[in-house]
Structures are given as C-alpha cells and as structure tokens.
C-alpha cells in the first residue's frame, strides 16, 4: 500500500547546551521509502535518528509514527514525553540498528532476536523462535544462532542486529551508519541484506557514507548540513547535474577516495 | 525478681580457673565450684563461654547474669558492676627464666603482705635495685599492672600484653626479663612452659589485690547477689572451696578472713 | 552524654595516633616493596618463582592477620636458630615484628593488585615499546609500571585503607596503637560505647584523608583519560 | 606425638570442635554475604540514582563502613544492637533483656561491612555495562523494569563475580573478629583450645590451615562461577587466570 | 646513495604450532625502495613484518639490517636471538607503524615521540624536543603535541605513530596496514604523509590494502599467498598485463569494491 505515511517529522530542533545541533528538520517517509541520510561528520545525522525514537528528546517539533502522534509535555523550558508507555510502544514500532551493533552480550544470537517479541510484545515463545530462525536464515547467519555475540565477526554481528530489529516487525527501520565499523569484505554482506529488505518494501531511513548504496538502493537522498536539510531529491538528480554546490563538494570528497 | 534461673559466663580458656575440654564442655576450678554454688542457691544455672574483652559490658547489657572468670574485686569495677564476697584470693609474684641472672632474687620463697598505696616496703626496694633497666611484662588493665607501674615504673621498662599467655611466651622467648601476675596462674603456666620458668622474689599477698576474686553481678540484682553470698559462705565453711582448690591449683586459694 | 569523659578519651586516643601512623606508613612502604618482588616473581614465567609467589599470595591472603601476627611475633622466638642469630636484636622489637607481619600480609594482596594492573596494560603498547628497541628494566620503568600503576590505583586505595584498619591488631604484640589503647581504656572504665565512638571517629578521619589523597593522585594521573580540554574560543 | 593427638577426633582431640567451628565460620560468613548483598544492592542503587539525598546516603554508608575498623563495628552492633532492641522491647511493654544472639549480631555486623564493599562491586559492574546495550534495549521499547530484569541484572551479576570473590575473602577474615561475641567460630575455638591446652602454636597453625582450606574451596567455587558466567565472552578473555 | 641494501631477508620460515605461516620468504630493500606487500587475509603479511623486527622469532632464515646480520642461536629445536642487546639495537633502526597505532596512552603526543630518542638512544632532551616538533609539524599535527592520544582522531593518532617511528631515525620503516583502521577521510591524511616520506627517499615496506597507494606510490609490489611470495615486480607490470592469475583474481576482488 504505497502512499501510506509511515513516519512524519515536522520542524525538529535539538540543542546540547548552547550548541544547536538540529535547527528544524522535517521529513516524511512513505511505505517502502528507502531514504539515505548523508552529511559531513557532526552535521547531526545520528542526533536526528536518536530524536525520532526518543533516545534524545527534541527541544521542539512534532513526530508521527504510522499516523500516531507522539505527545510531549513542556515544562519550564524542557520537553519530555507525556507518557513513557507511549514511548515504549512507539519504539517497538521503530527498528533501530546501531553503528556499533549493541547486541546484548550475555545472550546468544537467538536469544537476542526473540528477546523483544517475547518480553516486550509478549508473544508466544515458540512462535517467536520459529520466526527468529527464519529471519536469521534470511540474513545468512542461521548457523550461528546459539553463539554469543562476542564470538561473531563484525559483519555477522551487524546482521544479527538487523535480525533483532526486524523481529519486532517494525513499521520503519532506522540505520545509523550500519557499515562504518566493518571492513570492506563485511560491508558487502550487510549491504546485501539491506538491499533485500528494500526490495521487500520495508520503509528505511539510513545514515550512510556508502555512496553506492545511496545511489543504487535508496529512492531518496537527503543531505544534511549544519543541522538543516540542505537539499534532497531522487538519487539520479542529486548525483548528477541537479546537485547544490555544497553537496557536490561533499561527494567530490568521496570521489577522490579511490 | 524470682531467681530460679541464671546464666553464668566465663572465658573457658583461662586454665586452670576455667577451661574447655576437647569435647566442648567447660571444666576447671570455677565450673565445678559454680555447680555447687548453684545447687546451694537453688538456682538452675547455664554456663556460657564468652570473650573476656566484652564480658563486663555484656553483663550490663543483660546478655548474662553472672561473671565467674577469676574477676578481681576492685574499686574501679565496683563503679560499674556489683560483686559477691570473694570465693578465692591469690598471691602475686614475679616470674623469670630459670637460667636468668634475675632468678632467685632477694626474698624468693618469702611472703610479704601489702595494703593499697603502701610504700617503703624494704623487700620491694631490694627488688627495685635488682630489676633496674630490665623489661617487665604484665597483662594490660589488671591490678597487677597498676602495682608494677606504681612500684617499678621509674626503673624498668614495662610492656603490656593483651593476655597473660602471650606474656609467658615472650618470657620464654627472652623478649622480656620478668613477668608479674597471679602466682596460682603462674604455677600452672610454668608446667606448660616445660619448667623453664620459675618464681623470683617474694610472694605478695594482702588487700593490695583487693578482696580477692568474686562473682560479678549487675548492681541492681542485689537479691541474686545475696543468694550467691550465702552459697559462697557455706562452701568456704565446709571446705568445698579448699578441696576444689587443691584439686586444680595444688594450693589453697580460699580467702583468709 | 558525658562530654568531659569523651574529651579526655579523645586526648588519650590521639596520643596513640602517631604509633598507628608509624605502623601504617612503614608497613605500606615495606609491603609495597615486597609486593614488587612477589609480583615480578609471579609474572616472571619461571615456574619455580611463580609457584613460590602463588603459594605466598595464597597463604597470606587466605589466613587471618591475627594468626599471622601471632606466629611471627611469638612463634619465631621459639626457634633457637633465630633467637641466637643476628636478626634477633631486630625481631626482639615489637614494632619491628608488627610492621613485618603487616607488611608480609599486605604484600600478598598488593602483589595481586599490581598483577591486575599489569594485565590491564595493552600488549600493543608494550609491543610498540619493543619495536623501538626498549626491553628489560627500561621497558618496565617507562611504559609498563606507569600504566599498570594507574590501572591498579583504585584497588590499591582500598587495600591501603584496609591496611590502616589492620594496624588495630598490633596491640596483640604489645604495640599500643589507637584500638589497643581504646580497648585498654574500656577495661579500665567499662564505657565501651563512648570509647569506641571516639576511636571510630579517629579512624574515619584518617581514612577519609587517605582516600582524598588517593583520589587526588588518581585525578592527577588520569589526565590522559579525561575529556580533552576545550579550546577557548577567542 | 601428643600434640597431634590433640588435633585428632579421640576423647582428648579437638578435631571435632575445630570442624564444627569451621562450619560455623562458613555459616556466619555466608549469612553475612547474603545480608551484604541486599544492603549492597540498595546502597549501589542509591549511589547510582542521581538523587542527591540518596547519593549522599550511599556515600556516607560506604565511607563509614569501609573506614571504621571492623572490630569497632562488631562491638557497636553487638552491644548497641542489644540495647536498642531492649529499649524497643521496653517501649512495647516487655520488661527484661532482649539480646541479639551472637550469631545474628556477628552476621549482621559483618554483613553491614560486607555490604559497603559489595555496593562498590555492584556499582562498578553496573557502570561496566555497555551504554549501547542499554540503548538497544530502550530502542525496542523495553520499559525500565524489563530493562533492569532482562539486561542489567544478568550482566551485573556476571561482571560482579570476581569482585564478590574478593568480598567473600574479606568477610571470611572479618568473621574471625566475631570471636569477641563468644560465638564458637574458627578463630575463637582455636583461641579457646590454645588457652585450655596451652598449645598456642599448634592450634593457631591448625586454625590458619583450616582458613586456607576454606579459602581454596571458595576460590574454586568462584572461579567456576566466573568461567560459567563468561561463556558468552570471547575465548581470549577466558583462561588467562 | 641508491644501491645500498638497507634490508635483506633470506628464506624466512615461521610456524605457529603445526601451522606453517611463512614458508621461505626472501626480499631485499635498497635505499629509497618503497615496497607494497599485498595478499589476502591470513597470507602471513603481518607475521612477516613482525619477524623482521623480531616481535616474532622466525624458525629459520637470515636477516640483515643495514648490513648487520642478526645473530640467532638454535637450541633444542627452538631459535632465539643471540643477544637481546643486538635485538634492541636492530629494532631502533627499524621503524614500525602498527595498524592500531599503539601510542602510549599515558604520555602526550610529544612525550610519545621523544620517548625513544631520549631513553633508548640517550640523546639530549632539548635536541629531541626540537626534532620532534619539526616532525610533528611535518605530519601536520604540531598543534596537538600536548594532547593525549585518547583525545586525537584516528588519523591524527596514526600520524603521531609515524612521527614516533621517524624520531628514531630508522633506516627502514615497516608499516602494517597503516590505514585500515581509519575512515576514508582519515586515510587520505595518512597516505599523504607516506607519499611525502617516499619522495624524500625513505626505505619503506608497507602492508596495505590501498591499491592506489600500491600502484602510484610504491616502486615495487610484492604479492604474498599462503606464506610464499607468489609474484613481485614493478607496479605497472603487476597491475597490467604481466600479472599472474592469482594476483589478477586478488585485485579483481578489490576492483569490485566500488
Ligand atoms: N550528548 C551530546 N552532548 C553534547 N553534544 C553532542 C552530543 N551528541 C552529539 N553532540 C554534538 O552534536 C553534533 C552532531 O552530532 P551527530 O552525532 O548527530 O553527528 P553525525 O552527523 O552523526 O556525525 P558522524 O557522521 O560523525 O556520526 C556534534 O557536533 C556533536 O559534537
Ligand atoms: N600468535 C599466533 N598464534 C597462532 N597463529 C597465528 C598467530 N599470529 C598469526 N597466526 C596465524 O598466522 C596466519 C597469518 O597471519 P597474519 O596476521 O600474518 O596474516 P595477514 O596476512 O597479516 O592477514 P591480515 O590481512 O588479515 O592482517 C593466520 O592464519 C593466523 O591465524
Ligand atoms: Mg553519527
Ligand atoms: Mg595483518
């Protein structure tokens, strides 16, 4: 059902102390959108993702997830979510994949994946295990399901983290530089999984430095600069003539890499 | 209060006054005497072992009712607890190594009688000359410690031990030259030191050591004290104390009235 | 509360503080030196030396200090070999024996703490030192020891405080430090609570000062771990 | 040898009493460790709470009970505790003495001390949990309680095991000081045997050896627990003992 | 003075347990040579470098550094250096730059750089500081000289590590994947420094995955495979027609990276 707005963000602002990191960001993601978020280091990409699933509280702005508005209260200059319950619910609808995997080190891969469905969604354990095994099969690490995270390579850990997020059947997946901690060989593995997700129509917001992903997999590219969306558009337009000077300079930098 | 039951505490490690047998039961002079005293006072007694350091505070805290642990009756202690009449009174003396130059000091074998605060005793002055510059070991916070400080503090080095047994070991080791303590206690200690130690100088008796060893009882419990006083009197009168004393100490420690 | 009694108790106890401090500082010093010897044996790789060190640590960590002190003070003198040796003039002194047994005991703990610090040094930093031609004592002095010491500092602070408290046992061997004097006062006055309260305050203050000092040392040794100083914006 | 007979199990042997005393030491230390675990968890939670009042309470607790000699704390609890209970009893109309038994007073005192060390162990373990793993838990919508139960608790327990081993060792030796309450634990029984037989060295050495046996047994248990808990860790982190 | 042999290795062998990692490697580096060492993961590149400066002891073979032969003794099946003194001396003539920087965390950058000259070479401190500052200037991090390693970015740390090695005035520099722990932006910084070194005529042996460096900066490419040198030659020859099938397959793999 393309056309359904899965995620909608209006005019998000965020400051750390006196430093305003996000200066009013708005973005909509519809069903099946794969949005690449590009930008120089420090431009606020991670902060933006963290505001969406409330790991940081935005100072201002509105967020809707799958049509549900996140209620905030403002009290003497500070904002906080009106209901922790709603926050927990919203988070269970947003899958987050961290740059540093953050798998729970005391659980096996399978336990990591079923943890959310069993204890947060309170679904029957047997069903969760069956689904988890299918997911691990899909990301290609089914044989590692009884291993602990510390015994896996970086690429395998990252794929386990993706499976863990998918097991919650999220409406939207948020990826924060899912490949930057990986060596080139492992990058390939993870991108392959993400490409498959995109083809299945999962809505995704991906902070990435992989230009080839931005160009070939995503259907929209958003370029952030100093806490603002400097420009955005279809990958083809962005990477060819239509780019702004700032974006051209940004990708030029990458172009010289090899 | 109607005293039909009482708890008596003792250290259980101060042979031969009181000691612990290998099967965990208490034995020695005091446990055997306690049995007789309780029978005569018609009190059902329980004996419990506890540590010497905490005995008096624990008595006042109410953890038990009677202390029977070779407790000398002194003015200071009377400030905080009450006492029965004494059931024993023992002389005190110096001890040294048999092969020490201090062995057989002046007055060895004699007995002198002293009163509290008495000075100018000629036997003591003779010892002072002999013990000049030596090291004397005493058990801290005893009447004997006070005596040694008062009479030898100016001429000898005094070292305080937490227990008499520790001091005896050091006397054997040669770390100190002399020890001063209860003569009955010493006589027993010499045996376990393989008779390498012996008395030196005169035995000192008299009211300088207070009235002797009595039962410690809370000041408020005068009725209990009176019951035990009667019992002690009768055991002294019929020779029970003397018999037990001969059995455990080989000398009579009954207080001389 | 009887304040004149508390005051006079405090004065009596304070007179014993120098003894406590002497016991404490000497045993920390000698214990530290001995710990360095033990730990270098422990990590030497030589099975005999490291076995000895393991045994040492096991015995001195595993048994109560009270027993150790008793055996050192009263036990050593039982042996004629020792009593008639050149050591006796030293071992005769209660203070020497007290410091000796405190130092022997803390050396076992401290060696383990130092070993933990050494294990926390990144092998890569050691390799980097080797690669510019460092080895042996130079490597230990310049790279291993400073990093290991910094790692060991928090645990070592705890051990130092434990040591301060352990000096309380020295009255067993006729060194009358604060706790011993307190116990003697109690057996003279039978006022347990008041006397122990004064003693508790003294130890608390001493340990508080030590911990503050250690925290300061830790702070000054961890500049490399703190957030970088923010450059002032002109 | 006569002295060895004293350690045996015959009618003149102290063997049985020493074994009983060893078990008593074990029991009082284990009870103290359990009391300390509860206190330690509460104090650690207070110190981590961020609430200035709770933090101050936690700091005072750990400073005082680590800074005051154990013996003093044991005395304060043994005598002070009895007076307190007795006066509570009086207030409730009960005349007479209500004492803390030696075992309870000793275990409580050592437990309170042990709690101050355990608090630091738990706090360190909590701080060692990766922040990322906590965020990951929030990110799938785990609420506070669930996060604590599923992510924090298991990891704190694992990370705390080595520290708890040290605390156990400390408490084992602190329990020797309970001898002043007259409880027939290993230290006191050694002293009593020594005083009654006047075989000081024999019984102190025997007592020391029994402590060493307890130490080596408990070391073994803690090592096994640590290995078990660390099975989720990379192979290189294990077996370095 | 080109033509002087700075480093000469003959028939080096090394086993871990039963696994023979190096199976007879020989190599000469003359003054000013910049040799790129390529090879798949596990082919023994790092082990080879580590054998050269004796961080691992080769089971067999001979090494000369600047004409000095490293003496070994062989005792019941094991080899070890005859003299720790010689090893220390040789190491001070070989600069090693590690993949993971390995700066000493308790010293500032300047202290890291002068540590070797002052304490190993025992040169006057003031001279060392002056030279160190010049070196830090050269690698572009002079302003960071009083910072601690933990406060530097990866690229800055890696450049500090290079300065530290250079401060020993080594005859030969050994680099073990000097850029693989860095993100693309930082890779550029470090490669720039290495290129400058090459132009000054420093003899260098570089394990790298950066094909552009191998191709454009080095004057010889050595390709290792399963503990042996499979092929070697001038970059031009290697990267064009003259390559062996194995090397072609190896660089094919990289070619597909972007
Ligand atoms: N918790 C925080 N406290 C203070 N400042 C912060 C905090 N988190 C982020 N910042 C600042 O906010 C700015 C944006 O950070 P953010 O992590 O969002 O950047 P980014 O675009 O993700 O960069 P990168 O590509 O390096 O990950 C940076 O200047 C950073 O220093
Ligand atoms: N200390 C060691 N003990 C046992 N095996 C080792 C050791 N060090 C390396 N190896 C093995 O030796 C082989 C070569 O390792 P080496 O690190 O030299 O490879 P490499 O070519 O540098 O690979 P990479 O590109 O991944 O760094 C590998 O199979 C590795 O597992
Ligand atoms: Mg980021
Ligand atoms: Mg390598």
TrEMBL record, chains A, E:
InterPro entries: AAA+_ATPase, ABC_ATPase_HisP-typ, ABC_transporter-like_ATP-bd, ABC_transporter-like_CS, MetN_ABC_transporter-like, P-loop_NTPase. This is ATP-binding cassette domain-containing protein. Keywords: ATP-binding, Cell membrane, Membrane, Nucleotide-binding, Transport. It is found in: Cell membrane. It holds the Pfam family ABC_tran. The keyword Nucleotide-binding applies. It comes from the Bacteria. It comes from Rhizobium hidalgonense. PROSITE patterns: ABC_TRANSPORTER_1, ABC_TRANSPORTER_2. Its main location: membrane. It is a peripheral membrane protein. GO terms for cellular component: plasma membrane. The keyword Nucleotide-binding applies. GO terms for molecular function: ABC-type amino acid transporter activity; ATP binding; ATP hydrolysis activity. Belongs to the ABC transporter superfamily. Residues 7-251 form the ABC transporter domain.
UniProtKB/TrEMBL annotation, chain C:
It is found in: Cell inner membrane; Cell membrane. The keyword Transmembrane applies. InterPro entries: AA_ABC_transptr_permease_3TM, ArtM/GltK/GlnP/TcyL/YhdX-like, MetI-like, MetI-like_sf. The chain crosses the membrane at residues 20-43, 195-217. CDD domains: TM_PBP2. Pfam families: BPD_transp_1. It is a multi-pass membrane protein. Belongs to the binding-protein-dependent transport system permease family. HisMQ subfamily. This is ABC transporter permease. It comes from Rhizobium hidalgonense. It comes from the Bacteria.
Automatic annotation (TrEMBL), chain D:
It is a multi-pass membrane protein. GO terms for molecular function: transmembrane transporter activity. The keyword Transferase does not apply. Pfam families: BPD_transp_1. It is found in: Cell inner membrane; Cell membrane. GO terms for cellular component: ATP-binding cassette (ABC) transporter complex. The chain crosses the membrane at residues 12-44, 64-85, 97-117, 200-222. Residues 22-222 form the ABC transmembrane type-1 domain. The keyword Lyase does not apply. It comes from the Bacteria. Keywords: Cell inner membrane, Cell membrane, Membrane, Transmembrane, Transmembrane helix, Transport. PANTHER family: ARGININE ABC TRANSPORTER PERMEASE PROTEIN ARTQ, CATIONIC AMINO ACID TRANSPORTER, MEMBRANE COMPONENT. Belongs to the binding-protein-dependent transport system permease family. HisMQ subfamily. This is ABC transporter permease.
